[in-house]
């Protein structure tokens, strides 16, 4: 144990004293060395990160061939062009630590090594993500980073890793803010910009402490591909789309550029109906969740590809203002969400939670929207807006009530733009 820890400790001391700090840290250091506080890489995740992750479909059954094929599929499917740039390897890529404590990839599953894989991914205009855990073991029992944070961060930087999802298994007795801050500092010290995705399932309210630590934080336990269910796994549960949505109550004020509420990797294309998948995708977009696909993108149907690459919906998620939607009305079955966008534009989502389709007539005169958090407000009855429905392409304006039919477990999503002042 001591043998493994020593190089790690030496590395930590070396980083603290010398060269791989960012230029601004050097500037501070020359004035007052003790004040050179490491920080997260603030230039990343100005809009929610987009990509693909192995876990939801493949769990531990992963290897370098799958990663290469999936990187190729991101390109050929048009997903990369739509914004999905992170190729994220989740749990189970690990082999053993070497005699100095440096982590190695599983030699059977990743025989070419991670650097070669990163080169492959980068050559396609994509970025490579990896996974570790704040405890001694990951959730699948692989080596975690506890006590090896600086070594692991340095290893990831050498490999050319761009994204770290950092899990929370095997952490009894650890302080979450401290544990995640240690890895943040280690990443900063290693010098390569790495998007830091916190994954402690909302257990210790990361929205309260993580804005300066990571770029996103999971708000809930794991997702499951169902509409309104939970899947009991004994000591914990996975959640369907609606339970995850409902667990976001009260969190919107913590979301913004560089600090996103992460509702988990998506289950689009994993067995729900097409309407449910469209609703799931629209909800994640409206709520500013990272958009990380979790299906087998090498084999997805045309319908799934179309949902994941709906640029009009993606644009809501990627809006530069980064304001998370709020629910302004619900009648138990039909939820209505509003999201202020750049240039005085708005998105509205009508979400039918029920098992039956729903006809609804929305009278613009009856709804003055006031965002108590950002103070954006609009009265569509007084200021006429044109709109596009983002799944059908239908267009209209707010001059007359809008009659819509919202599918069962489905959505209608409108993007509204003010018409020129009259
Ligand atoms: C946890 C995470 C999941 C996944 C698994 C891997 O459950 O929440 O997203 O990373 O661990 O073991």
Automatic annotation (TrEMBL):
Domain of life (superkingdom): Bacteria
CDD domains reported for this sequence: GH27
This protein's record includes keyword Disulfide bond: yes
EC class name: hydrolase
One GO biological process term: carbohydrate catabolic process
Key words of the record: Disulfide bond, Glycosidase, Hydrolase, Signal
Family the entry assigns: Belongs to the glycosyl hydrolase 27 family.
Protein name in UniProt: Alpha-galactosidase
